[in-house]
Each structure stands twice: as structure tokens, then as C-alpha cells.
Amino acid sequence: MTKRVYVERALFMIGDQGTGKSTQLRSMFQDWRLGTRGVIPTDRNPRNTYALSNERWLYLRLTSPDETNEDMARFLNKCEKKMRKRKKTGRPERWLARRWNFAGALQHPGNKRLQGPANVLAHFECRFEPERIRAVILSPDYDDNQMEPAKLRSLINSLRKVRNTEVIMVDANARKANGLLYADFFDFT
Description:
Order of helices and strands: EHEEHEEEHEHEH
Largest sheet: 6 strands, mixed
């Protein structure tokens, strides 16, 4: 019998293509609690799972499902597969009870297959039922470009309709300025 993956919190970095979403996600690792001694990973493909405590784990996904041309089912199935860990025992395999947290990137407006960030968040919420979702809109972005006001208003209004979702907007012009803000979202003390 399969068990559902338990997801506590999900952080989605939202911006246009090339606006610094993965850079902002990487900046979380300034926080020593994420196990990298404050060193931000610069590898093209860093590890995707990190221990937050004995029972809590973080699944980090730097690439947006838009960039990999995934549809909704493939994106959600990939997330679930990565967050499922099997306990190795002499007996038949059992699911290891872990509390998962997720941090990932989404493009706005997104591709036709995913139908935008709000749709992705709604499906993620329905599948994993996280306690909290935080949608982070990057504006101004990496290159100091502001999102158009009408586009921004539409995005915020659509994200606010997703259950258990809080929406914030950050200045993503500085590479490391917001890292501790993101990491604090995963602090349970």
C-alpha cells in the first residue's frame, strides 16, 4: 500500500524566463541550518534534497516545469517520486516517515500545458495538501525590470485564490539579499 507524501511547506519562486529564480532559490543556502555552512551552491546541478532536521527534508527544484516542457502530471509525479524515500530493512520495504518541504521555480506566464503559476500551485496544493504555500514574485527582477502593473495585478489576484497560499513580492536585483528570508520560511523553531 502506498502512502501519500507529507508536505509541510512549499515555496515557489515566480518570474519571467531569465529573471533569476534559481539564483534567488540558491541564496537560501546562506543560512547555516541548510547544511552548507553558509556556502551557496554554484554547481549547475546541485543536490536536490537537504536535511532540515532528523525528520524534515527540503526538496529543491531549480528548473521550472516550463523550462523542461513538463505537463502537470509529469511535474507532480516527479516531485512525488523525489520526495518518496524508502527505508532499507530486511523486511519488505516501508515508506520512511519524513516531513517534506519544497522549494521550486515557476515561470510567468508559463506554458499552455501548465496554464500559469496559479494553476500549478492549485494542483500542487490539491495533490500534496501542504500546510502553507508561499508564492514569491520577483519584481524588480535580476536585471532590475519591473513586471507590468496589469500583469502583476492579474498574477497576484490569481495566486490569492489558491488555498493556503500567501503572496509576497521581492526585489530580486541583488543576488543574495533575500536568501535568509526564504530560508526562514522553512524554520520550524
